[in-house]
Amino acid sequence: GGRCMSGTVELHGIELLTRDVERLVGFYQKVLHAGREDSHGGPDRVELLLPNGGKGANLTITRNPQAPDDGERAICMEIWVDDVDREYEWLLENQITVSRPPASLPWGFRYLGLYDPDGNHISLVSKLGEK
């Protein structure tokens, strides 16, 4: 086991490095219904603001000329949503390719899979029976 920490520990955000900031920002604004904050380093660093159940979270997109620009990345994100099927319809309406359409899992969740333009994998997940 790990050392016990005092106080609350919360993941505040994730930063993705890319060669094309605007391409990823546009993609994640659609997929995550996120607000945009450019005052912390834009245009080379853009923060996307997510409600995250009232706690807030950031997905930061930062330009890095050495970042790979294609192919599958090692980063995988799991994003909780209210209704995977509703999000699936939204993604299709916005011409976003889904690699794995919605499927129910035997342990009580429903998910879909997609890749961002740089090849990072995203799972959108909702709990079955809680729509």
The profile of the biggest β sheet is: 4 strands, mixed
- Low-pLDDT residue intervals, each spanning 5 or more residues: none
What is the number of strand segments? 8
Number of helices: 2
Query: How much is the radius of gyration in Å?
Result: 16 Å
Order of strands, widest sheet: 1-4-3-2
Question: What general outline do the C-alpha atoms trace?
Answer: globular
N-to-C SSE string, H for helix and E for strand: EHEEEEHEEE
Average pLDDT, to the nearest integer? 85
Per DSSP, what share of the residues sits in E-state strands of 2 or more residues? 35-45%
The computed structural class is alpha/beta
> Could you give the distance between the termini?
36 Å
Helix percent reads 10-25%
Q: Keywords for this structure?
A:
alpha/beta, 131 residues
Describe this structure in words.
With 131 residues, the protein is of the alpha/beta class. It contains 2 helices and 8 strands. It has helices at 21-32, 84-93, and strands at 13-18, 35-37, 45-50, 57-63, 76-80, 100-105, 109-115, 121-127. The strands form 2 sheets. The protein has a 4-stranded mixed β-sheet with strand order 1-4-3-2, with helices on one face. The longest helix is centred in the first third of the chain and has 12 residues, at 21-32. The termini are far apart. The mean pLDDT is 85.
Note the topology.
Elements (H helix, E strand, L loop, with lengths): L12 E6 L2 H12 L2 E3 L7 E6 L6 E7 L12 E5 L3 H10 L6 E6 L3 E7 L5 E7 L4
Parallel strand pairs: 1-4, 5-8
Antiparallel strand pairs: 2-3, 3-4, 6-7, 7-8
